[in-house]
Write a structure and sequence with these properties.
The protein has 13 helices and 64 strands. The strands form 16 sheets. It has a four-stranded antiparallel sheet. Strand 57 and strand 58 form a beta hairpin. Helix 6 runs antiparallel to helix 8 and helix 11 crosses helix 12. The chain is flat and about 175 Å long. The termini are far apart.
Amino acid sequence: MTKFIIRILILSLLLVSSIEAQIKKIGVPFITNYNPKTYKAASENGDVVQDSKGMMFFANHFGIMQFDGVRWSIVTQPENRSMVRSLAIDKNDKIYVGAQGDFGFTAQLPNGQYRYTSLVKLLPVSARNFGDVLHITIQNGNVIFFSYEGIFIYKNNEIRVLKSKASFDDFFEVNQEIYVLDNERGLLKLKSDSLIAISNAQKFAGMKIRKIFKTNNGLLLCTQNNGLFIYSDNQITPFVTEVDYLLKQNQISAGIQLSDGYFGIGTRQTGLIVIDGSGNLIQHINKQIGLQNDYVTNLKTDKEGNLWVTLKEGISMIQISSPLSKILDTSNSETKIYCSQIYQNKLYIATDNGLFSLDWEAYKNGNREDVNFQHISGMSENVWNIGVFGNSLLAFEKNGIYEVSGNSAKRLAKVDGAWKGILVPNHPDLLLAGGYNGLYLLKKINNSWVYQHKIKGFQESSRIIETDNNGNFWIAHGYKGIFKLQFNTEFDSVSNVQFYNQEDGFPSSLFLNTFKIDNQIFFGTTKGVYKQSTSSNKMIPDAIFKKYLGMENHIRLLKEDNLNNIWYVSGENTGKMTKKANGSFAVEELPFRKLRYLYVPGFENIQTTTKGDVFFGTQDGLIHYNSVKNKKYQTKYKAVITEVKCIFPKDSLLFSSRYDVLPNKTKSAEKEISRVLSYSNNAVHFAFSSLFYDEADATKYEYWLEGFEPKWSEYSLQTEKEYTNLPENEYVFHVRAKNIYDVVSEEAVFRFEILPPWYRTFWAYLFYFALYSIVIYLIVRYQKSVAERQRRQLIENQERELLRSRAELNEQKLTWEQQNMAIVRENLETTINLKNAKVASNTVNLIHLNEILLSIKELIAQIDKKNDPNVNFSLLNKINKLIDHELQGDKHWNEFEEIFNQLHNNFMQRLKTSYPELTPRDMRLCAYLRMNFNTKEIAPLLGISVRGVEDTRYRIRKKLQLPSEANITEFILNF
């Protein structure tokens, strides 16, 4: 029984160990590359450290380079401007610097600058000739600088120098112990400022050890060209690994012991190799699969567990602590993944370039050098879905339905696009395939799927299909709604179709999906998860999903795994609802925040396996997740204000760490720049960032200028803010960040004050008071003088009053005279009006009389002299002559002319004077026109016809010399 228990325990330990190893073996961690064009400095970097706030510093050939998550900048340089090769940092954030022929330290000043202090001046002159300082370590108050020519131990402002008879080869810190490789003496240990040879030390001479790790089996030695060795019990033995050929052929250059017991080994020619304690390959990350350069110069981890890799050309950050990784190989160029499936130990991915397969067992065990994605021949366009039906793997492609066998595919049905397939309930030999324009039926005959026919009665696109327990088929159309289908017994046509959209309870008819969870049909909408009410058949929100996912997001995917956990894509968030023993769910989203905006819109897909592997198909390839790897997402981090400057009248920096903006050698630089600003500098610009490097581009910020704004701003991706025309006041600028895991950073603040303008200062107000007092004094004096003048004026006023009284009498007399004149003028106007009325009346009567006379004259003219002998023609002639005389007489005209001239300011006389060639008849016509008579009214007054009046008007126009476009009536009225 005891042996059985021991075997079980050993098996359990092996299982746990293998599970932990699998995490790093499956896929490639997310890598963020920073190239020289990004950080704008030299390409090569030799070291990296992180301060207590989280700021990253790199040993760049141009100087010490700082990265705050947003901006890169050189913060200082050695005094001799040589290349920086190594860095170390103490608990007070003092950075020790190793350069070429120089070493020292730098610390941040109150103005944000970093001032470099060289320690070479403490060396004796004979010890100052050395090359690159390649390593720095801090122990027990000692700072140890290593170069090939010597070891410099700095403490209490003194330096002790250790020399080699030949030269040193390398330097190692192993669990608080210092080892030095001497080219002549071999491996030495530094104790009490002395170098002491270890047992058989000379055996190590010439081995070119580049890293030493402490293990349970002894010291693990990483040599440049000969692989790995174990030093234990004074013996050196080879440490055999799965990657000896890589380690021996590609020159080891750096190493790091990772927190999970793995070893990261950097090489010069093949990037980074990660092995476990037994020498098994865990990761091989090189340029072909994401690293931007194969020459690794150093390896360091930060507080978040990211691995920073400094390279011969560039910097890479590898997120080794993330449970997410990419399934990549050297030949995989596919990006859009529509579906994935593991079948017969192969991983298949459906892409926009066809179907590919990978030996999954070999890949996840780390054998990636010989494992590549293989293209499945027969399909080269969009493969929308793949699935295992019975013992067959079917692919649904743009050109039809295919059965996959090995590395090739055979087309089963040539149809105009196939989306996916689903087995018919209670008919395991029938497969329903959804196509671009309807449904197709396949039947399993002799263990092979055979195309039967297209199903009649339904022509809609059928990309999303599910079945319920009653045998109904639910089809979601993204732009129309949900179809519920029933088929006849032969499955050759649709017997019943029911359609559901917004009118049936959905919040919208657009972007609807259907899913099957726990044998129930659910619907993803733009506002949460819905289901069909059993009583009303209306669509209603599901209470459980409403509780956990809310009702505000677009539910793009629901997927149930073998443990009854529910995977979902809600809005841009991916999550997992883990079912508890009591039936409730625990929601987990943080591990999947990196998947935001990576899915192919409308083709979100998650594939789970019974072994705990989860695959996400994205636009950026296939991403793998395993929950065994736990990452801490609630880590604390800081927001920082990296630069503050006044904008007007010109850029004036108040705070900055950039090396090229403020002097850092003068004494004034050691003092904090005054944060009390004149009013002319009331426009301030802030630059800020957060010291969180996982998806740093997605970190959002909120800010608040206390003293100017009432509350915090909304979160945004903005990393700069400027304020203009700030009034005088004391201000505090606050900023804080929120990363992709919704963790809010510690707040950063910057206090400053803006002084009032000169005209609102104390001295200005004192001046205003003095000026006011003088004005009051002058006013009082003025009032006294005014009172004296008023007394004298009173006397003068009394004298003028008498004169005024007399003037008023005269004025009153003048007023009466004016009133009399007004009465006279009124009477005159009345008289004129009466005369106007008389003239108008006489003229009307005259017109009437002349019309009668003309009528009589026409009647006389109509008498037939020959046929009517009884008529007295002589009498008629006399009457006719009398009428003509009356029509041409001047009796009435003279009276008319006299009154007319009185009323119209001697119009006739003025007209005659201006135009003497006018005849009396012309004058009369002009008078009538002045009275605004028309041609028909004028004709009887002149005793002529209307045509005669027109002729007369024409003659008058010529005499008046009027142009053709001028109106004669308007001219006469205005004359």
